[in-house]
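As the work plan foresaw, our protein records have gained a structure token line. A representative record is set out beneath this paragraph:
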Amino acid sequence: MPAPVDLRPTWSPWLVRLAAVSAALCAVSLGGLLLDDRVIGGAPAWLKPAKFGASGAMFLLSVAWMTHTLRPTRLLRVAESLIGAIIVAEIVIIMVQAARGRLSHFNIDTPLDAALFSSMGMGIATVWVLTMVVLALHLRTPHADRALAVAFRAGLLLHIVGAGMGWMMTQPRPQQVAAMQRGERPFVSGAHTMGGQDGGPGLPVTMWSRDHGDLRVPHFVGMHALQLLPLLLLGVRAVRGRRNDGLELGVLVASAAAAYLLFAGALWQALHDHPVVAFLGGKT
């Protein structure tokens, strides 16, 4: 069996710095929430940039942690560089659209809106592929810490599947296709909501639909397994001390299975037009 890889002495400085930039952009957007009362698509204008800034910071720190356990090859450096730069660029575009009072996602209303949305799509697709590269490098790398390796690999795989929900969201809805067939140009192409329009009643902060299925729910569950599973392992070790034994491995495997089932249930619910919290009073 190959020897376990030596860890790099530090996390990627590039990714850590860009995570800090993402956090700063989140802070700026939170300021926008306080000072700007405009509403875009049924939500406060600066809510989406704030959420993406926070999510981007968490994602970049997670990638820095996970690539810390890989050999520092040129391929890995390229992947880290592109992932960090693209994520920050995405947040900047979302902020620009918020400042303009425009939707950032699905918006094809004007050539500029369509160009910005297309550039975001190409950027995220690139990050998606590069995340698969990171997963492939992890699968090829022997790790002495088996439990942590399971947490990273299972989290990365579910993150990739969850991020793939973004492609489903960008697909034109039937009414948008019908409008195109009539020769009309719809305002947007794609949506978060299944069976209804975006912008209806939503849960606080997340804005997940209270009346219809919402693809953002499985998207969220899948993407944040990347943080959940490794942090769960740290929690177990905080209680038991570092063991790297069979019990830890069993807890991680069971937790990963639960996360995958939760993702599958959330996806089924969204695709069948069931709101995530029907008991709060939406359509069932």
Observations:
- The chain has nine helices and four strands.
- The chain has a mean pLDDT of 91.
